[in-house]
Amino acid sequence: MSLPVYIGAESIISSLGRNAAVNFKRICQGLSGITLHKQLGWKESDVYLSRIPELPERGKFLHLLNAVLDDLHQGWDADMLSSPDTQVIISSTKGGISDDLKNPFHPAVTALVARYSLVNRPLILSNACISGVIAINLAARMIRNELCRHVIVLGCDLISDFILYGFQSLYAVSDLPCKPFDQDRRGVTLGDGCGRVILSRDKSTFSSKPMVYLGGSDANDANHISGPSRTGEGLVRAVEKALIASNVNPDQIGFINAHGTGTLYNDEMEAIAFHRLGLDSIPLNSLKGYWGHTLGAAGVIETATCLQSLRNGILPASLGYENPGTTKPLHILKDNRPFDGEIILKTASGFGGGNAALLIQKE
Amino acid sequence: MASNTLKEELKKHIIEQLNLEEVRVEDIEDDAPLFGEGGVGLDSIDALELIVLLEKYYQLNVTNPEEGKQVFYSIETMADYIEKHKS
Amino acid sequence: MKEKATYCRMNPHGVFVNGRQKVSFNEIAVEDALTEMYRNLALEYPKFYKMDLLSKVAFLGVELLKTVDPSLVSTQNDDQIGLLFANSEGSTHTDMRFQESYLVDLLPSPSLFVYTLPNIALGEIAIRNKWHGAHMFAVFPNFVPVYYADHGKIMLEEGAKVVIGGWLDVREKLDALFFVMDEGLVNNRENILHFVSKCYSN
């Protein structure tokens, strides 16, 4: 029987606010942080983005990591930050690339070590859009294998010309705020994001009641480096393995927070996968309509939101969704819904054919 | 009917831009489908690079991948599109 | 524990498999030498030419491991081979080329953009071999043997039968290492740390 691992002390910094409670309140009010930004795109195109306001001109990446660690004491015993039993994992795709293309991660990590007297150098995970979920799964594994007692998982990514022009070159950016799973969806909306969750063996280190991390896994499609598998093979395997690792049956899942980016192919793949898994009647949403696709931060921010759902007993609507747009129908929430369920499944899929899943349970 | 020079030039550009290293100009037939099995075997990323190629060498703007499907069907259709829009 | 270690080292001097030099990089540029190596291996995998340098190095490293240890592919299920990789530079080599494509050529290249993530190299390995297993890419300032010891062990406990560890720096100079870990090797921490350090220092 593996050690119980607790997960909590969540935080979210996004276009909608600087902590988890404020973000959750606003998304339950149906607010979105996505706005039109004139001439910011390639060839000065207008583009919908979700941007965190009041960031410094330079050093945004470090600024956000500092912010999310500075308010650690709001949810956790911050003295533990400098303990040898604590590990920080940072999930990010491009880090501080706008500051230094050739060195997007190391300067920020070095600064964090100094500022917070970290004993163990933070581990950077760069696994595309599944980084956040993989980071949380990794944290739990490190704890269960007694490599450490506490892991602070941070996810952080920022919009930059680099990322925006790249997605535009793929014709993957929607000309309207993204509409995950909807029949009129036209692509992603990019967003700045920074999130935090903490995993620990010790319940007592949390200020508010933590939830329970059950298990997780990941699997590769082995199909194409940027297009998802038509059969959803990787996602099916990731979820199946996650369920086995968590000792959970599919019918025990109360809610699914999917990846749902708003592209034709990703959302279609997820629908096929959830259908293959027999999960198509479980209430499901995507959160990307609220603060866009936050890339390396997504898995952390969205898991943080799932924790808020368990705390508050509410499932937010899948913003942007109006009409079914996938060949296999899903039970997608068009409105907020009260939730007295216990177990939530979180999934992510990304470039490189990666897919990851995790399960959390109300304590 | 587009000129043979244009078609040959197109084939050279495609081989270079799409890193089709083991493909020679004479291996690509004018009317062979560029995409899918049985043809030249290009994929979805190649399709996007063809959009870039048209802009880079011919200053033409295929505005979205859907339009691209018809234009990029074969060397023949690409060359016809270029000839038609050049003037 | 395996009698024979299976590893492949690539550095500015050439390519070494299990300590023996396979290719010398004397006068030829690294990319050309790697292309020649690909041709000599007669792999018939034209997708190789579309890959960026990071992916080419990763792809070839694993192919060389397979030539030395065919059991790598034949004795495992397709989700029992884990990929545990890291480097110091992420995908910077390709990042710079992508940035150039929009700053200098004024045409952002989609085929470069899709490689501006280091884990894509793992995706290419997975596609080539149809491996559906676990994979992870971390970024450290320098080579960290403990990463492979700790996380290789975890991967093996989580269902992998074999884990391929990798280090992939290509930007300033070629500095790559590929090695195979199994349960026997990782269960003795001293052994695994010694093994990994030794492979890297060769």
Task: Summarize the structure in words.
The complex is a heterotrimer of chains A (363), B (87) and C (202). Chain A is α/β, with parallel strands linked by helices. Chain A contains nine helices and 15 strands. Chain A has a single domain, classed as Peroxisomal Thiolase, Chain A, domain 1 (3-Layer(aba) Sandwich), CATH 3.40.47. Helix content of chain A is 28%, strand content 22%. Chain A is globular and about 50 Å long. The two termini of chain A are 18 Å apart. The model of chain A has no long low-confidence stretch (mean pLDDT 97). Chain B is an all-alpha fold. Chain B has a single domain, classed as ACP-like (Non-ribosomal Peptide Synthetase Peptidyl Carrier Protein, Chain A), CATH 1.10.1200.10. The longest helix of chain B is centred in the middle third of the chain and has 15 residues. Chain B is globular. Chain C is globular, with a radius of gyration of 16 Å. At the A-C interface, strand 5, helix 4, helix 5, strand 9 and helix 6 of A face helix 4, helix 6, strand 5 and helix 7 of C.
Q: In brief, what are we looking at here?
A:
The complex is a heterotrimer of chains A (363), B (87) and C (202). Chain B has 87 residues and is mainly α.
